[in-house]
Amino acid sequence: MDRHRNKATVLSIISMGLGQIYNCQFIKGILYLLVEAAGIFYFSSTLGRALWGITTLGETARHKVHGKFVNGDHSIYLLVQSLITLIFLAIFILIYVINVRDARKTAAEREKGIPPHNFKRSLRYLMDYKFAQAFLALPAVGILFFTIMPIIFMILLAFTNYSSPDHIPPAKLVDWVGFQTFRDLVALKSWSHTFFGVLIWTIIWAVLSTVTTYFGGLLVALLINQQGIKFKGFWRTILIIPYAIPQLISLLVMRNMFNGQFGPINQYLGYFGLKGLPWLTDPFWAKVTVIVVNMWVGIPVSMILIMGVLTTIPRDMYEAAEVDGATGFQKFRIVTLPMILFSTAPTLIMQFAGNINNFNAIFLLTNGNPVVGDYQYAGATDLLVTWLYKLTLDQNKYNMASAVGIIIFLIIASFSIYNYRRTKSFKEEDMIQ
Amino acid sequence: MKMKKFMVTLAALTLAVSVTACGSGNNGGNAAANNGGNAANESAANASADNSGGGAAIAPEDGAQLLVWESKEERAYTEEIAKQFTDKYGVPVKIEEVSPADQVTKLTQDGPSGLAADVVVFPHDNLGRAVEAGLLLENDDFAEETTNNNTEVSIQAVTYDGVLYGYPRSAETYALYYNKDLVKEAPKTFDDVIAFGKTFTDKSKNRYGIMWETGNMYFNYPFIATTGGYIFGSNGTDKNDIGINNAGAIEGLKTYVALKEVLPVKSGDINPDIKRSLFNSGDVAMDINGPWELAGYKEALGDKLGIAPIPSIGGKPAISFSGIKAWYVNSFTQYPNAAKLFAEFATTKDAQLILNEKVGSVPTNKEALESDQIKNDPYVSAFAEQTQNSQPMPSIAEMGNVWSPVNAALPEIWDNGKDPQQAMDKAAQQIKDLNNGSGQ
């Protein structure tokens, strides 16, 4: 009794829509046939070039003939165009599979004696049972082309030699080099020294900047919330101001304030007969400076957050603690701190991940300087992300930048996922141990 | 008919502008210039005959419009030129601000995608990179005028592999600005500078005898080159012969180190803004700087401002870096003719004099250099004098690998007292590595 089923399947495999027509679903069948026709029309002209493009990345660069430039293959454009074609191909194959499965399913129902849906009923079925998929199909395609495709493109760059001076299109071609870029990054001394140096500082920075701003904010929030503190609103306002000024302005002002010779801070210290510090010119002190300035910028954020949490702690817990004869510090250790940590742990991890990539704080304040003689295009306070910026915009080493970018992503993703899964709020334990 | 007449007038006008190119043998051209184009018909005929390959041959494309990149400091001149150009050719010109040092990098990106300017300007040390990347059109239609009208040094600087690319507009080097109230006469040697600095420098009051960007290779080249160092050998063309760490360079760097006594400031703390304000307020007596600061300094100091050549080093007159700033035509431009016309139009004698008037540059046009406007300007002639004793920056593509390592080595010597030989050896090694592509 499976005559229908196999026939419909085979027909649909031969061409989209034939199986549907065999099942007497004419409109659906014709629609599928149209998709097939459009696909064949589009792929016949592009697919060959796309496959050639993504494997070779072009064969002739732009060159001069009799003093006139003749356009050749632009490897990077080729790569993008090929990617777009291949994504279309994937969508096409997906539709093909859906069409075969649909034909087979309808035919199977016919064998059981259920008449095939007419077009109206098919639409009804789609709207009733497959509403979410139908509704999300368009945004999904958008995400595919505007989010996923660029990410794939950027990841692919790490496996090419797209870099200045010898592989910048259109005058030169770009080639696939496999994992060579990653190998250079960890094995070539000039690169690896910089990479590990910058990586270690990035981790130190992320930990220190997160811890200092978080606990600084906690301290300030607790102080303001103490009973008997007057003008609470005033203190809050004062402390929120740094957060309200755009970082672009405040950090560039700080940059001048911390100037070792002409900055107001060292001049001020000079009035007290103290020798100023080389705030931005000494590798160690520059690191201290960015941490300190980042505290000034970041503490208000944690403060607001923690103030909000403090209001949610039930009063009766403190009362119970007082009845038990707890000291102020014990109340803090046993009631306040766990409650705060419990509600803010996810934000803390978010802040940590954000600090790994805190571009503004470094770029605006020190621009990664002071320079370090044996680094490749990096300075003592450069984070991976600002180094990446320099590699891309100043040096055109796109492949290296892409490799560094992938590594940053892996670090942040693994950190965040691991930590997040271990937080109590993720495990949804509503009892604090 | 109308078109023909237009072309003829155009030819005459172009000729009038580029009259100098015809040399002495072209009476027709001179006549056209003198008669203000009344004799256009006849002289234009002569012009195309005499001036084959001259500017008469090209006209802007229909519907052409140009985008031009220019620095913030020199924008005033380009705006003026753009206005005149639009009046003359009817081609609208838009200006975008891009720092000249970044233009080649930006052109590499934006050129192929069609977003770049049609006409760009950059110092010639970037020329090799740009040509290697196929970003520039040759200066072919106006080659004759350009070559005849500009100084030989400037033509060499904008030529790469024997092909002329640029339309030179100004020669840049740096000299010693000094405040006549504080410095009685311009120091002849750096020993004089140190002697004066000892009497004037007072770190607690932030007064310094001299200040310059000690971490920037551009301004510190005299300490390398005067006593026999160099960047690349064979006049800056041999990438394998690096001379920043030879005996001569180390000799000159001794003077550099000695100057720390009168400028006890970390290189990272000196930036152009701070330096400018201190010099303007009379707290810094001398500044090694380029002509782009001239207009501002003149305004601040008036008659007190003096300019002298850079003091001698090791008994030899200091050799500075010179850069030729020139216009170039983007090879991806949709309107090559209009772009070439603009580049030519913006580098004529008159245009260079406008640039000098607005910014205080040193022209490359021979006639402009001879004009009263330049001759009678003590400041510009001081720069011109220093230019006589300067070396053009190398323009090979590898020049792009030199800045970072040397700009990292100089602060190590200046701030941390590192041995110049060691620091420069390391920088030279890094440049070699980058040249050989291990930096890829």
From TrEMBL, chain A:
Database matches in SUPFAM superfamilies: MalF N-terminal region-like, MetI-like
UniProt-recorded name of the protein: Maltose/maltodextrin transport system permease protein
Compartments, record wording: Cell membrane
Family: Belongs to the binding-protein-dependent transport system permease family. MalFG subfamily.
Broad class of where this protein is predominantly found: membrane
Membrane-spanning residues: 21-43, 76-98, 134-159, 198-222, 234-254, 284-313, 334-354, 398-418
This protein's UniProt keywords: Cell membrane, Membrane, Sugar transport, Transmembrane, Transmembrane helix, Transport
InterPro entries: MetI-like (IPR000515), MetI-like_sf (IPR035906)
Taxonomic lineage of the native organism: Bacteria, Bacillati, Bacillota, Bacilli, Bacillales
An MF annotation (GO) of this entry: ABC-type maltose transporter activity
Listed Pfam families: BPD_transp_1 (PF00528)
Any one of the GO CC terms: maltose transport complex
Species annotation: Paenibacillus yonginensis
Membrane topology category: Multi-pass membrane protein
Function description: Part of the ABC transporter complex MalEFGK involved in maltose/maltodextrin import. Probably responsible for the translocation of the substrate across the membrane.
Protein origin, superkingdom: Bacteria
Domain ABC transmembrane type-1: 199-419
Alphabetical GO biological process terms: maltodextrin transmembrane transport
From TrEMBL, chain B:
Subcellular localization, as worded in the UniProt entry: Cell membrane
Name of this chain's protein: Maltodextrin-binding protein
CDD domains, per database record: PBP2_Maltose_binding_like
Similarity comment text for this entry: Belongs to the bacterial solute-binding protein 1 family.
GO biological process terms, semicolon-separated: maltodextrin transmembrane transport; maltose transport
Keywords: Cell membrane, Lipoprotein, Membrane, Signal, Sugar transport, Transport
Any Pfam family the entry gives: SBP_bac_8
MF terms in GO: carbohydrate transmembrane transporter activity; maltose binding
PANTHER family: MALTOSE-BINDING PERIPLASMIC PROTEIN, MALTOSE_MALTODEXTRIN-BINDING PERIPLASMIC PROTEIN
PROSITE patterns recorded: PROKAR_LIPOPROTEIN
